[in-house]
Amino acid sequence: MIKDITIGQYLPGNSFVHKLDPRVKIWLSFIYIIILFIVNKYSGYIFIAAFTLITILVSKIPIKYLFKGLKPILWIIIFTAVLNAILTPGITIYKIGPVNITDKGVYLAVFMVLRLIFLIVGTSILTLTTSPIALTDGIERLLNPFKRIGVPAHELAMMMTIALRFIPTLLDETDKIMKAQMARGADFETGNIINRAKSLIPILVPLFISSFRRADELALAMEARCYRGGKGRSRLKQLKIEGRDYVAITFTILLMIISIVSRRWSI
Amino acid sequence: MEDSMLLANNIYFYYKKSDDEKIEKSIALKGVNLNVKKGEFIVIIGHNGSGKSTLAKHYNAILVPSNGDVIVDGMNTKDSSKLWDIRQKAGMVFQNPDNQIVATIVEEDVAFGPENLGIPPEKIRKRVDEALLAVNMLDYAHHGPHLLSGGQKQRVAIAGVLAMRPECIILDEPTAMLDPSGRREVLDTIKRLNKEEEITIVLITHFMEEAVEADRVVVMEDGKVVLEGSPRDVFSKVEEIKRLGLDVPEMTELAYELRKNNINIREDILTIEEMVDEICRLK
Amino acid sequence: MSIKIENLVYKYMIGTPFEKTAIDDVSLEIKDGEFIGLIGHTGSGKSTLIQQLNGLLKPTSGKIYIDGEDITSKDINLKKIRQKVGLVFQYPEYQLFEETIFKDVAFGPQNLGLSDDEILKRVRRALEIVGIDFEKYKDKSPFDLSGGQRRRIAIAGILAMEPKILILDEPTAGLDPKGRDEILEEIRKLHKEYNNTVILVSHSMEDVAKLVDRLIVMYKGKNILTGTPREVFMEIETLEKIGLAVPQVTYLVRELRKRGINIREDIITVKEAQDEILRLLRRDKND
User: Is pLDDT of A4 > 70?
Assistant: First the structure.
């Protein structure tokens, strides 16, 4: 059913990676991305590949599942490869009409594709092993220090939580309204673009009205439960950085050092 | 009045409407007097637009009266410095279970109220577990609310209020959107909280079989309290109740019809057992 | 218009670990002009069943014939089926979207491609059936009305398509007693006047006892009982086992009989109970 789709495709689990503090996971993901851009030799990639593979194995995410996530961006990957291969100057190794594929081009193309794949795989490990609610929690707490300069950390997190909470409800509702209008002879499948866009009005108007009503009632219910913004609020779940978090941090920093050193290597 | 939990003292409420023609309609409450005692289980009935929801929102200081006073355990709802104390003391449960659950995990939602009150985490944990236990939903603590039934969602909403340790819970048609078994679950929960935890209950409903279980029934019509008393007293006034567009329990109706046919049966029958006893007596 | 369902099966999310059989081999027949009550616990398959009757859901296997025509075949014109089989969903007022009541009720007929005259005629008649004054309300916004009135507008939106089969999924949910009685009365009158086939999904045993010719009881995707309300409500044990109940008065006569009072067992409405108790008490006096 449509309502079972969860954003970020979180895969519940109980692994080492799952249990890491969300704040740590967000930070380490950032560092991982930086590392990807520090590395400029293939030798550096060997370490990144090892690190990524170990993380995947420890997190117990099926590798097949992970690579499924690459499918939608397959075209971007091919595009990057082709562009790099033909636009980089160097010794021509293959010629198709006016297009020259150079040795440096191929070198760079493979390099860029690898970088892109590592980027996607690495960041999806974050969303696959962190529940949306933990992610929201992590973001809120990471943004907390910036409250003083006017970043509405709590409000952003609350909005994200409510959005996550209402996604299944609204999907369900869309389904119901669509069916109700189809029962009245509405047709969403035929006609040109303008007609199709028009045919969405009978769905969108009720959906908007009901969303506003829901928002109104939710606001009332929140106020009735003493909600008055982030000030003076405590939390049921406290985030605590534990031993395993330090282990993860250590390994990532190690990878960072290697990647910096690897810039000086020959290949 | 020392044992008063909720006191409505001749309250009026005008909706501020910019609409020019409907001035008359915008008066939602026209002088309501009602004293809900501590530990009481009160049911408010009345057709849609009779003002019962408006009254309910006054008890939680979501609305404040245009005239008159609402006193919640000694605190006037007009006193804005007491706002949060009032809302903690008089919790509220609404009709649509979907639109009052904030979090994506049951226990996080129950924790929402205590978190707003700034209670320390260990204490919240304890309160959440106790509240979920009280509504018999502890097994669902880690579930997503969208996978629960309507009755279960409403019990989560009640737990969310309970975790704030209120003395009184106001429920605004909590069973209107539920199926019969969901209604039963919610009503049983409410009754248990009233009996065992001594929580004052104000229940607004359209279902007369729920009203039968109350200590006192209050009937509203056109912004006023028009009838009030024990379920037995109120429902025995069959004609008046019907005139107000409401129902009486089926057994009361049957007794009424029999009396119309010159059968000398008690008019204040509410339950099947009472009806059986009466018929056996007459025979 | 008749309905014939043969070995209907409907499964959700086939091929996933969440696979669930919502309709499990249901076969039944509904005759032209019958007033059917469809009852069952939430999740028993009622809603899934009615959504297949106008092609909103495609069965996994099995056949559905509407007036002899197989609506599960591939080349069926679904629009035509949806005109014949009108389905009023739960809380239908949430599907209203037009600026005026006239336009909203006209949405269905318009989709059928009818002429303006015909649309006007149908909207007028549909509003009349649900007790909404056409002249007074046609240019008003549906959103200015009360909940009960909005629901009647939404029901009129289906009626204006003049379906031969009308299916209503809990049309009185969430209404106050007066609103509930009004809608049920309109449905009863409609059935009497036009003699179309009506399927009413309800949780209220008292309501179906008063209204319908025949009950269909669903449980775990199966049609486990069918018959007149009188027949079905005699199966108290079966009904209670599947989370349903019988009307209060049926419980009453059962209790009376337990006390040794000789009263008819198959009583399902207050009126019947009243007549029977009167007969009982008067007979004793005459003895």
Answer: no
- In-domain check, residue B260: no
Does the model's pTM come out above 0.95?
Answer: no
Query: What values do phi and psi take at A187, rounded to 5?
Result: -130, 120
| Whole-number pLDDT of residue C286 | 63
What is the span of the domain harbouring residue B122? 4-248
Query: Among candidates C179, C192, C114, which has minimal Cα distance to C147?
Result: C179
What is the pLDDT at residue B21? 52
With contacts defined as CB-CB under 8 Å, which chain C residues touch A174? none
pLDDT for A36: 92
| CA of C269 vs chain B CAs: smallest distance (Å) | 10
How far is Cα A216 from Cα A218, in angstroms, rounded to an integer? 5
Comparing CA positions, the residue from B180, B81, A264 lying closest to residue C240 is: B180
Per-residue pLDDT reduced to its tens digit, B62-82: 999 999 999 999 999 999 999
Closest by CA to A61, choosing from A132, A133, A135, A130, is A130
Q: Which of A184, A198, A200, A201 to mutate to test the interface with C (most CBs of C within 10 A)?
A: A184
A239, closest residue in chain B (CA to CA): B121
The answer to whether residue B283 sits within a structural domain is no
- The reply to whether B277 falls in a domain is no
Output DSSP code: residue A238.
P
pLDDT tens digits for A111-129?
A: 999 999 899 888 888 988 8
- A5 inside 8 A of chain C by CB: no
- Closest partner CB to B257 (pick from C146, C177, C274): C274
Return the pLDDT at C259: 92
Give C-chain residues touching A185 at CB under 8 angstroms. 79, 82-83, 107-108, 111-112, 161
Rounded alpha-carbon distances, angstroms, from residue B130 to B20, B171, C82: 51, 20, 51
Poorest-confidence range of B42-46, B252-256, B264-268, C280-284? C280-284
What are the helix (H) ranges across A90-200?
103-129, 132-143, 153-183, 193-199
Q: Is residue B262 part of a domain?
A: no
Interface check for C249 against chain B (CB to CB < 8 A): the answer is yes
In this complex, the chains that touch A, judged by 3 or more CB pairs closer than 8 A, are B, C
Q: How far apart are CA C81 and CA B214, in angstroms?
A: 49
Using an 8 Å CB-CB cutoff, list chain A residues near C97: 201-202, 205-206, 209
Tell me what ipTM this predicted complex has.
0.90
E strand or H helix at B101, and its extent? none
Query: C47: which residues sit within 8 A by CB, 6+ positions away?
Result: C90, C169, C201
- B95-145: pLDDT as tens digits: 999 999 999 889 999 999 999 999 999 999 999 999 999 999 999 999 888
Q: Which residue has the tokens 């609204």?
A: A170
Is the CB of residue C112 less than 8 Å from the CB of residue C192? Answer: no
Residue A205: closest CA among B274, C104, C219: C104
Specify the number of domains making up chain B.
1
> pLDDT digit string (tens) for C150-201?
999 999 999 999 999 999 999 999 898 989 999 999 999 999 999 999 999 9
Whether B141 contacts A260, CB under 8 Å:
no
The fraction of chain C above a pLDDT of 90, given in percent, is 82
| CATH number for B11 | 3.40.50.300
